[in-house]
């Protein structure tokens, strides 16, 4: 049995969190914890030090881009890959947004879960 990918998901939509947790853990190789409160995100990610953080872009309070900057500024969390999740873009728009070496990846909430899994695998593979 291989190593499980540890994921922290931050999204203000409880139903989306519940669904993604079930879908990702159904792979048998991912462990997901989440919070619907963006104000807790940095503390949770700092405590858990996941293999990847998935951040909703548009949230009340601190949005995903701000969270990403906060994580990048913290030595303990700076190297954690970030995957943005957004309901504000279509799957085609998300695919069309180039991601460079230092830019987090983006996936639409409307994308099939297989695309999310592939993005996670891509960002966490050695």
Spatial separation of the terminal alpha carbons: 18 Å
Bin the strand percentage.
15-25%
Number of domains: 1
Number of helices: 5
Q: Which CATH architecture would you pick?
A: 3-Layer(aba) Sandwich
Give the uncertain stretches in residue-range form. Answer: 90-103
Structural class: alpha/beta
CATH class: Alpha Beta
Please provide the count of β strands.
5
Q: How would you sum up the global shape?
A: globular
Strand order of the largest sheet: 2-1-3-4-5
Please compute the radius of gyration using only Cα atoms. 13 Å
H/E element sequence: EHEHEHEHEH
Which tags fit this structure?
126 residues, alpha/beta, Rossmann fold, 5-stranded parallel β-sheet, 5 helices, 5 strands, 38% helix
Compact overview of the structure:
It contains five helices and five strands. The chain has helices at 14-25, 41-48, 64-73, 91-96, 113-124; strands at residues 5-10, 30-35, 52-56, 82-86, 105-108.
Description of the molecule:
With 126 residues, this protein is of the alpha/beta class. The chain has one domain (5-124): Response regulator (Rossmann fold). Helix content is 38%, strand content 21%. The protein contains five helices and five strands; from the N terminus they run E-H-E-H-E-H-E-H-E-H. It has helices at 14-25, 41-48, 64-73, 91-96, 113-124, and strands at 5-10, 30-35, 52-56, 82-86, 105-108. A five-stranded parallel beta sheet has the order 2-1-3-4-5, with helices on both faces. Helix 3 links the parallel strand 3 (52-56) and strand 4 (82-86). The chain is globular. It starts with a strand and ends with a helix.
């Amino acid at each position: 049995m291989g190593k499980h990918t540890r994921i922290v998901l931050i999204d203000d939509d409880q139903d989306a969190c519940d669904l993604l947790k079930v879908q990702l853990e159904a792979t048998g190789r991912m462990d997901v914890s989440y919070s619907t409160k963006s104000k807790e995100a940095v503390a949770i990610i700092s405590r858990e030090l996941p293999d990847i953080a998935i951040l909703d872009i548009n949230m009340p309070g601190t949005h995903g881009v701000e969270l990403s900057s906060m994580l990048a500024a913290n030595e303990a969390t700076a190297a954690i890959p970030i995957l943005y999740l957004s309901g504000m873009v279509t799957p085609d728009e998300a695919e069309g947004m180039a991601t460079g070496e230092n830019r987090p990846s983006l996936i639409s909430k409307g994308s099939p879960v297989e695309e999310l899994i592939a993005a996670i695998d891509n960002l966490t593979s050695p």
